[in-house]
Amino acid sequence: MAARPEWVAAPVEKGAAQPTAPGVLCRRCTHFFDAKHRAADGCQFHPESWSGETKQRWAAPGENDGASDVHYFWSCCGASERDAPGCKRAAHCTFDEEDTLTW
Question: Using CA atoms, how far apart are residues 73 and 82, in angstroms rounded to an integer?
């Protein structure tokens, strides 16, 4: 049996109050938030993708030193750590809402 998420309480007795999730899941940052009280800058995220490229793209013709090594980065800001804090801030957005932000 899969482990329960930490916010899910153990089963409760019949008639007792049921446990609830801590809020709504944000489609950008994947954190839970209170939909009734959203800050305009409460969501911190990367608007573009985590990607990788080889040095070959910038190497001079015939230069092969390390050309096949892949360098990974966020394409929006160039941060090279996968868990780097997001480079943009906005209000949280649910999966039921249209994401209207443009960059």
Answer: 7
